[in-house]
Amino acid sequence: xxxxxxxxxxxxxxxxxxxxxxxxxxxxxxxxxxxxxxxxxxxxxxxxxxxxxxxxxxxxxxxxxxxxxxxxxxxxxxxxxxxxxxxxxxxxxxxxxxxxxxxxxxxxxxxxxxxxxxxxxxxxxxxxxxxxxxxxxxxxxxxxxxxxxxxxxxxxxxxxxxxxxxxxxxxxxxxxxxxxxxxxxxxxxxxxxxxxxxxxxxxxxxxxxxxxxxxxxxxxxxxxx
Length: 225
Ligand code: ADP
Known about the structure:
Strand order of the largest sheet: 2-4-5-7-6
Distance between the termini: 44 Å
Radius of gyration: 20 Å
Bound molecules: adenosine-5'-diphosphate
Mean pLDDT: 89
Order of helices and strands: HHEHEEHEEHHEE
Largest sheet: 5 strands, mixed
Strand content: 15-25%
Structural class: alpha+beta
Low-confidence stretches: none
């Protein structure tokens, strides 16, 4: 229900906010705090404020998508270049988690009709999930393949580590749905709902599976020859 959703969101927003005000209060009311400790507290408060900013951005995005206010601006997009750039963008967080990113793209560039900004959001959400939930899986795979017969371009991200239970896999694209929310404190359960929305606005679709070969998110686009 709507009330439950609001409670969940309010809870997610309150957690970083409480921590932020807590650390700022420690600094504010304490003159004899040493520089090192002060810096540590400031950094924590800063990280929490960035997290809060991300959560609010996701919420805004989501409500915008829901009301269909968003206009697509489609261009002929070199999806190969685009995915390579995405990999570069995420390189620091992949390194930070000590993961190897394995990419596989066809030799010749592939094209789709797409809105670069929105697709960066959608595919970025998939990649950041793979990093977040596949952190103990050692590697992440990112692949782009062409299905000539059906005139499709397929983008996929695979991560390893803990699987998504079969009973949950059909629900993860629902707004605010999170598998076993206690597993990790970060996230709103909106990332996949946003990604799905954007992909469908592009007349594409997204599928997920999670088994002994890994957790795979596959996106199908119409190719633009
Ligand atoms: P969030 O990550 O903010 O919780 P998402 O909508 O992006 O929300 O994902 C919904 C849920 O699906 C996550 O909470 C997580 O349990 C599961 N999930 C998503 N992506 C992956 C993945 N790559 N590997 C394992 N679990 C995932």
